[in-house]
Amino acid sequence: MPATAAASSIDFWFEFASSYSYVAASVIDARGAAAGVAVRWRPFLLGPIFARQGWRDSPFNINPVKGRYMWRDVERRCAALGVPFARPTRFPQHTLLAARVATVAGDEGWGPAFGLAAFRANFAEGCDLGERATVAALIAALGRDPHAVLARAEGEDVKARLRDETARAEALGVFGAPTFTVGDELFWGGDRIDDALDRARGL
Structural domains in the chain? Predict the structure, then answer.
C-alpha cells in the first residue's frame, strides 16, 4: 500500500466564510474520535484561490440558483445534526482576522475551540466576523487575552504563515472548503468526511 494511503490523522482545511465548513466543523472532531483518527484543523483563505479561478465573489452569489439550494441544504443538514443555524446577513463575511487568530490558536492548542466559536458566531449567532470586536469577544470567551492574541495574530510571522498555508492548500489541489487531506489524497466536501477517515485508517 502506498505510504500516503494510510495515516493516523487527517487535515481539515476550512474557511470561516464557508457554510459547508461550518457543518463539517460541527461534527469532524467527534467523527474523528469515533474512528480513532486525529484531526488537524488547517485554516486557509479561499479568496486568493477563487481569484485565480477568475471569481471575485462566492460561487453561491455568482450563481443565485446554486446559492438558494446551498442555503436550504445547509439548513436541512444543520437541522438533522441538531446544529444551530441562522443565515448570515452578509455572505461571505470578511474572515481574514479570524483566520489569523485561528493560526495562533492552533499553535497554542485551542484551535478547534476557537474554530467552532467563530463558525457559530457567523452561521448561528448573527455576528460579524469582520468586526475586530467580535473576534476579540470570542477570544475572551475562551479564557484568552484578546490583546495578546490579536497582537500575535497581526504580526508578520502569522500573516506570512497564513499566506503559506493558503499556498500549500492550493498546491495540494484544494479549490473549495471544506476539504480533507490524508497525505496527498484529497477529499472535497462535508459529505466526504467518512471517506477521508476511512482512508486515514487504511480502509
Answer: 7-200 (3.40.30.10)
